[in-house]
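Section 5.1 Outputs to date
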Amino acid sequence: MSSQRNRYLYLSASGEPRGPAWLGEMRRLYQSGEIGPESQVCREGEEDWGPARTFPEITSEDAILPDQAAPSTPLRPSGISWGVWALILILALFMAWVQFVYLRP
């Protein structure tokens, strides 16, 4: 039952029932205007329909969609692999050592 609480049914503009749709999809539909504040929505497994504006989890503008969440892995500059960055670091340290050993006055 708890997984059903995150799924919704809704009526399309032509009055046809659609869904079930997950909460993230409902937010996208609302933000794109496909579902409006007065569109009828119902949680899956329930019988009470109401306007979308009465579902703050769908209509909240500060809600973060799953694809807007912070990435789970750290980003690397320009997509360069960590191995390449390690080689660049080693080369830079080697050049600094060469300058220190051979080019100092």
